[in-house]
Design a protein that fits this description.
Layout: H1 2-26, H2 29-38, H3 42-58, H4 65-87, H5 92-117
Helix pairs in contact: 1-3, 1-5, 3-4, 4-5
Length: 120
């Protein structure tokens, strides 16, 4: 049951990050406007989009999953801060994605640690 729930969490979380990253790379007007308000430059939109897509793919690679999840969690901390202090709007989605990313990092870490404990 735990494995099924973990995979469901991974699929939903990865899907959200794949969508968000794709919107950034596609140059959707909302994303372009958001990154204009941030003021760092549009290169940062591309950079963030690539990290989100790469992290989402990494969630499906078991040895990389904890690191990919921590990368995505770090991005969400930045997104939460951006919503709270720069752009406004609700940080509810970034908070939910932060929680799911941290849960995946924990669950995948536990799984990889239990595999090492089993003698070959």
């Amino acid at each position: 049951m735990r494995r099924t729930l973990t995979w469901m969490l991974i699929i939903v979380t990865a899907g959200m990050f794949l969508l968000a990253g794709s919107l950034k790379l596609a140059g959707v007007e909302m994303e372009v406007g958001l990154f204009a308000v941030i003021g760092i430059g549009q290169w940062f939109r591309y950079f963030t989009g690539v990290l989100e897509i790469g992290g989402a793919i990494g969630l499906f690679i078991e040895p990389a999953a904890p690191f990919a999840a921590l990368l995505l969690a770090t991005i969400m901390v930045g997104a939460i801060m951006t919503h709270l202090f720069i752009a406004g709007g609700s940080p509810a989605v970034p908070i939910a994605l932060l929680a799911s990313s941290l849960a995946i990092a924990w669950l995948r870490r536990e799984r990889s640690r239990s595999r090492r404990a089993i003698p070959a």
